[in-house]
Amino acid sequence: KPQTDDMREAPALVIIQHLLDAGAEVAAYDPVAMEETKRRIGDAITFCNSMYEAVNEADALFLVTEWKEFRIPDFEKMRALMRHPVIFDGRNIYEPQEMMKNGFDYFGIGIQPHIQS
Known about the structure:
Blueprint: H1 11-21, E1 27-28, H2 34-41, E2 46-47, H3 51-55, E3 61-63, H4 68-71, H5 75-81, E4 86-89, H6 96-101, E5 105-108
Parallel strand pairs: 1-2, 3-4, 4-5
C-alpha cells in the first residue's frame, strides 16, 4: 500500500509467494515496509537497500506499490542493471510508449502489452 508500511492484504505478498512457488529468486525493495515484509516472509527472498539494487541482474521488475521514488527512476540505469528489461507494472504508473522508448518490454494492468521487436 503506497506511503505506508501496512502489509495487510498486500498484493506484493501474494505475488512474491507465487514467484517463489514457481522457483523464482526474488529481490525486494520498499522504502518503508522492509521490516514488516521481513517479519512476514523471513529469509525466503533477498531484501535490498535501493530500487537499483533490487533490479540488478533481474529478469523482470514487478512494480506493486506506488511510491513517489518509483515514479521517475533513472530508466537508463535500470535497463543497464537488468538481465532482461521487462516491467510488470501493477499500478500503471509508467507510460507504455515511454517504456518502449527506454528499451523495456512493458506489461500494465488492463492494457495491451508493449514488447520490443
